[in-house]
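Need tokens for this chain, all 372 residues.
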Amino acid sequence: MKAIFITFFLFLHFFIANDSIAQKKYPYNITGIISKPVNTKIYLALDSGVANSQKKIIDSAAIVNGAFNLKGQTNIGMYAIFVSSNKQWKRVFVDGSKISIMMNKDSTYMAKVTGSLEMDLLEQFDKKIKPIKSIEQKLLETMLGYQKRQRTDSLNLVLPEFKATQARLYQEVKEFLTVHPNSYAALDLYDRYGKKLYSDSVIISKINAMPEKYKELGLYRSILSKHQSTLTFAVGHLFQDFELPEHIDNRLFNTKSLDGKYKLIDFWASWCVPCRNENPNLKKQYSKYQKKGFEIVSVSIDTDTLAWKRAIKEGQLPWKQVIARQKDPRISAYHIIQIPTSYLVDPKGKIIAINPRGEKLEKELAKIFNDI
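Here are the structure tokens for all 372 residues:
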């Protein structure tokens, strides 16, 4: 039976609105009305993906009789607006447009933002895909439940629907990018979904064709850097060795110790359904070719060490198992934004295949070892 593979995306980035590079300042004039008014403050901060208490504050204003006004200059980009003592925030794009906000202090994230075409485009698109994302999330929760209870047959029945739902989502993204290629929303979507739709070189070409003002953004530079770095791990390039702790005794293991052998470097996590579905095939190939000079190194990005070790035990995985966490600097060069991701490397350290799974891996190894 042909395996069905689904890719799990990792939203690991933070939006970077400001850094050491000199940028043009854009005016902002944000007025707002708050229902259930409180005599407190409203804040404008970098949208850095962290808690409000940890955000870098750009500006603040008093809320008087339920109204406020934030006015000044800052770099173009995505910012967060929030009320003090509130854990929620609302994203606002600053590009010189005059912005109006209607919000309830108890549901800041649902605030209505008007005046910014870029925000309108992004919010309209997010609203459009919300039902699809909701279905995707429910299917994912169902699959994880089946996986936890080891109900493989039930899980495989859900996988095609999950794959079809993701295909619908990616088609919506592609259509939006075709209609609005020069919008900030397009840049945001290239960051979120680009890897699934286009090759690294195509993404670089598309974002380089965007308006110059977006090239001031940290988000633009982050996307560019990520995909340029990924190109360095293309077929024919040398794989960069790393050293990470093993699961048994936490002893450091260096992939360079496997020089002279063919090796599969497999990035995965215990909660990743397609990763674990591939493990039986990896066991089959490892058993068949390990004595001929084939090794596997599985690199977990789990944050829960116990779940990682439990998954290894449940899967009875006999090859090297190391853990890196999602943001471990030792694997940052690989820009792992989706799992499973794997590299097949030859004895000289050259990458000979990317993401070989299922029948593809079986054919690659058969070709290699039948020639030896």
